[in-house]
Amino acid sequence: MKIGLRILLGYFLILGLSAWLILNVVVEEIKPGVRATLEDTLIDTAQMLATLVADDVAAGKVTDSDLMKRLQNYAQRSIDANISGIRKTSLDYRIYITDKKGIVIFDSDGKDLGKDFSQWNDVNRTLQGKYGARSTRSKVADEGSSVMHVAAPIMDHGNIIGSLTVAKPISTINPFIQRSQRKILQRSAWLWLGSLLIGLGFSWWLNRTLRKLQTYAASVENGEKASLPELGNNEIGSLGRALEAMRDKLEGKQYAEQLMHTMAHELKSPIASIQGSAELMREDMPAADRQHFLNNILEQNSRQRQLIDKLLALVKLEKQQSLAHVQLVNIPRLLALIAEDANPRLLAKSLQLKQDVDTAITSISGDELLLRQALGNLLDNAIAFSPAGSSIHMQARLHISPHNADNAASVHISISDQGPGIPGYALDKIFDRFYSLPRPDAAKSTGLGLPFVREVALLHGGSISVSNQVDGGVVARFCLMV
């Protein structure tokens, strides 16, 4: 099954289940919601009417009162109202009044006059000063015959002298409930249909985009000339660009290997020739000339050998996908060793190395030799570009990420100098192989130090950055995950 179809099925299944659950809850809540609204209306009506009839009930004028006669004739009024498409042609309130013993003394329907209603919840609880209401079927077997009754106390000088109940058949609100449920079901069906169309469109787009990426990957695998297709600014586009970058990097590494073999072949002969010349210079010649040429030959010989060694080390490192030797590396001890290694060069330029290591930092997992070489390279660069008599600051800090659920920690090691800084045109090139800047002492480097440092950082899951400081000099930041 294709991934697009899997995503579509999963999407529609989740959407369908969610919509069904929500729809089920909404539809089931309509009926009790409407009934609660009806009950609220009945409470207001009962309370108002109980207040209006209180004087007549207290005076015993229930049958002779004009108000009671009007209530008696209430249901006889004609009405023809259209309520949101539902026609209303009858007035459905039934009103009855009981005395304080629960005996019916007024009934708008006239059928229960004189009966004892003291056991009905609406009357019984109201006469006790509580909220009284009930829902009773007029036909026991017919759920649709339920009638809602809500009572209110009739008060006289703070005493309950009776109760007034307003009743309304629940069947009168069923058309509104059914219409709401019908509309919800209809619109839900449209929602499901729309969701299906959206899901189909998304599945088509995803399959189309993945097919482009698959075709590109197949072309690369076959060694064909292929350019990355337009995949959009999204996760798939990011994946495609990552594959393109990986391809470029792999091709770059192959080039580096070829370059290494070429340079090794080209440089071995000159080195042997220089060495031979140095031996021949043992013949008679002025001592000053002999010493000058000898020093020059040996210096060039040493530099070319150094170039080969560093290039071999870099290419070997670039081919590694993971660390070959992993052990616990004590960071404070490692920094102390690096400082000790650099001490002769620091003394030669009267440089002061200031160290500031966070006491919370202990050990990390890594390759101690590679880390020592990488950090040593950074310190060597700082020494080379620092003016005599200045200072170099080596700092190590423990960072806890607040945005990571695992509270991931990292060690940030920075080495800063007070040198001339990096020219703007060179900032994007300093990690390129063989790229180097002129040094104050006129010595030329191999241009392989920073690429080596970057590979060491990547193998340790870390990063390296080099930038100019605001107040002058350069700072190199080497970050390692704990």
Automatic annotation (TrEMBL):
Assigned GO CC terms: plasma membrane
Keywords carried by this UniProt record: Cell membrane, Kinase, Membrane, Phosphoprotein, Transferase, Transmembrane, Transmembrane helix, Two-component regulatory system
GO molecular function: phosphorelay sensor kinase activity
Residue ranges of domain Histidine kinase in the record: 262-482
Ranges of residues in domain HAMP: 204-255
Catalytic function, reaction form: ATP + protein L-histidine = ADP + protein N-phospho-L-histidine
Gene3D superfamilies given in the database record: 1.10.287.130, 6.10.340.10, Histidine kinase-like ATPase, C-terminal domain (3.30.565.10), PAS domain (3.30.450.20)
Enzyme Commission number(s) from the entry: 2.7.13.3
Subcellular location: Cell membrane
Membrane topology of this protein: Multi-pass membrane protein
Transmembrane segments: 6-27, 189-206
Protein name: histidine kinase
Species this protein is from: Undibacterium pigrum
